[in-house]
Amino acid sequence: MTEPAYVSATRTAYDTVAESYAELLRDALAESTWDRAVLGAFAELAGPGPVGDLGCGPGRLTGYLASLGLDVFGVDLSPGMVEVARRTHPDLRFEVGSLAALDIADGALAGALAWYSLIHTPRPDLPVLAAELARVVAPGGWLLTAFQVGDEVRHIENAYGHDIRADAYRLPVDLVSGVLTDAGFVVQARLVREPEPPHEKTPQAYLTARKVA
């Protein structure tokens, strides 16, 4: 099966920026009270049991969730990001993989984190990712996703000091909530906050959802 062009472009972009991305965002979590609060709530809900940081990038949130006591591993589309994650967090497991076809057994996860993992996928393909997330999360398990709020596509030509080519989609909260609901989740909480400069220009959303038992 031929890989969609946007998937290849996303992989190449993140391979290109992996080192710079990890360095620039190294302290971002320490600077965001809201991010830590939402992740802390997710950690309380999702444990015990295995948790997947799906779209983990350089593993900064994987490491944070591990520090909160979760049995967590990371998966990312970009081999470059996974290389950085393995080097930074040698005690944790990281694998290269696609959210559209995860190498995870049905219902294996107590929780799944999709932190800005859906933003490079065109709207018509979002149900595919939501269905895959629902497949790997156990009945009664939890999902936390975060994304930029909006209703447009951003064509990225430069990021983290590198020339790249990728699209990022800003998404309406009701749209993402509906896609998750159709996939078999019940959205339990939603939070929309204002952007935190200098890295953000749009409102940011968090949705916490539970897989239907």
UniProtKB/TrEMBL annotation:
Pfam families recorded: Methyltransf_25 (PF13649)
GO molecular function, one term: methyltransferase activity
Single GO BP term: methylation
Residue intervals of the Methyltransferase domain: 53-141
Keywords, sorted A to Z: Methyltransferase, Transferase
Entry-linked SUPFAM superfamilies: S-adenosyl-L-methionine-dependent methyltransferases (SSF53335)
Cited InterPro entries: Methyltransf_25, SAM-dependent_MTases_sf
Name of this protein: Class I SAM-dependent methyltransferase
Organism: Amycolatopsis ultiminotia
